Amino acid sequence: MSLRATDLAYRVPGGHQLFTGLDLRVEAGQVVGLTGESGCGKSTLARILAGHLPPTTGTVLTDGYPVNAPGPRPVQLVQQHPEKAVNPRWTMRSVVAEAHDPDPALCERLGIRAEWYGRRPAELSGGELQRFCLLRALGPRTRYLIADEMTAMFDTLTQAELFAVVRDIVTERSIGLLVISHDIPLLDRLCDEIVAMPEQASAVSP
Ligand SMILES: Nc1ncnc2c1ncn2[C@@H]1O[C@H](COP(=O)(O)OP(=O)(O)OP(=O)(O)O)[C@@H](O)[C@H]1O
């Protein structure tokens, strides 16, 4: 059981080639770190792995099936900017309910307070909002989670606390976790394996 990308290439529409020949594998229950210089295409790769963006060429399979096969999405993505990932007009109750009926124990573990559910995104801090994005992403059908700089807005203590909770949850549920970050000490603490974007990713010619 794995999230497996094979021979991926992506060319920015009307622009340059971001990467070619990229292979990546995250096993169920494994925590993999991904790092690489700014602008090399990590967030683009994250969107491709989650099935939000088609690669120019190559395949992404989750447990042997195409990532964008019809049905519930097995790969969930939590991004750096939670405010861009939610409908600003919806209450947090609606944002989460659209995805799944949240388990109260999971809400508690993520530090979500009952009074936040009736608020809209602009009425929460970035960190509070990100907890809802995590809750939404950790539905019962999630098999793989991609955390793309997801704690960039947290202080160091909160970042460590939240990643500890997420690490426990993915282990308990055998979810494969891909952590994208520039923070190598964080990746060292969390990950079973760390991979770097290939050198060519930032050097592929137009
Ligand atoms: N739809 C698009 N249109 C134009 N350019 C794009 C598009 N998507 C990505 N890019 C460009 O592709 C490059 C890679 O962006 P991406 O956000 O994937 O990099 P990154 O490695 O995650 O960077 P960072 O570490 O700074 O977050 C950037 O130069 C970006 O401007």
Automatic annotation (TrEMBL):
Alphabetized UniProt keyword annotations:
ATP-binding, Nucleotide-binding, Transport
Is the RNA-binding keyword given for this protein?
A: no
Q: Which GO terms describe its molecular function?
A: ATP binding; ATP hydrolysis activity
Gene3D superfamilies referenced in this protein's UniProt entry, alphabetically: P-loop containing nucleotide triphosphate hydrolases (3.40.50.300)
Task: Provide the ABC transporter domain boundaries.
Answer: 3-206
Q: Name one Pfam family in it.
A: ABC_tran
Keyword ATP-binding on entry: yes
- GO biological process assignments: transmembrane transport
- UniProt xrefs under InterPro entries: AAA+_ATPase, ABC_transp_ATP-bind, ABC_transporter-like_ATP-bd, ABC_transporter-like_CS, P-loop_NTPase
Q: Which family does it belong to?
A: Belongs to the ABC transporter superfamily.
Q: What is this protein called?
A: ATP-binding cassette domain-containing protein
